[in-house]
Amino acid sequence: MSTAREEILQRVRTAIGTQAPEEPVQREYRQAGTLSEEAKIDLFIDRLHDYNAEVYRCAAGEEAVTIAEALTARGKKRILIPPGFPAALLPTGPDFVRDTALDYRDIDATEGALTCATAAIAMTGSLILTHSATEGRRALTLIPDYHLCVVYTNQLFETVPEGLRALGGRRTSPVTTIAGPSATADIEMTRVKGVHGPRVLDVIVVAAG
Q: What is the pLDDT of residue 183?
């Protein structure tokens, strides 16, 4: 088996031959944003609305009140949270269940998940999660039918290159991008929600203090 593999690879190398290094590809797409801070936030919210996500805005220090407002509007009472989600942001009333290696059945038994985000991109209306302690493992935002995400305006970038550069040392972490509730039209061109994640997405945009 090993000899046959090496023979095939050698034939490939011979067929390819010696080639000169390729010239670097010139990237002409936008590398930086041009919008004002408020226009960038408006664009982000507009994109989220296009994806049928509900958006709440609040000032720093009002997160708990706004989280309670969002959960009440959805009738949610038992919510899953990552192990490192800040306790100071949690309102009284709902039952918040911290994910301490819960199995998938326990995750599915909750009414949704509440997480933070690493970054967000206004141009695409995307949330970026790198699954830190405040964002949790991927199962938290794939299994439950509802996801409530908190993102701060200082985590919001206008363009994709800016958003990816902002990941810094977390670029080698598992990365999940979320652009609205999960949906697909792969099967008979019929749009179905909730196939690859939650059917319902709410986002709280917090003005960074």
A: 63
DSSP readout, the chain?
-HHHHHHHHHHHHHHH---PPPPPPP--S--S--S-HHHHHHHHHHHHHHTT-EEEEEETT-HHHHHHHHHHHHT--EEEE-TT--GGGPPSSSEEEE-SS--HHHHHHSS-EEEE-SEEETTTTEEEE---TTT--GGGGTSSSEEEEEEEGGGEESSHHHHHHTTGGGGGS--EEE-SS-EE-TTTT--EESSSS-SEEEEEEEE--
- Predicted confidence (pLDDT) per residue in 3-39, tens digit: 888 888 888 888 887 776 677 777 777 788 889 999 9
Over pLDDT 90: what percentage of the chain?
57
Assess contact for 120 and 151: CB atoms under 8 A. yes
CATH number at residue 108: 3.40.50.10420
Residue 2 maps to a domain: no
108, part of any domain: yes
Report how far residue 56's alpha carbon sits from residue 189's, in angstroms, rounded to the nearest whole number: 32
Q: Name the domain count of the chain.
A: 1
Q: Are 166 and 119 in contact (CB under 8 A)?
A: yes
Quote the domain boundaries for residue 50.
36-207
Residue 152 lies in a domain: yes
Report, as an integer, the average pLDDT of 69-91. 95
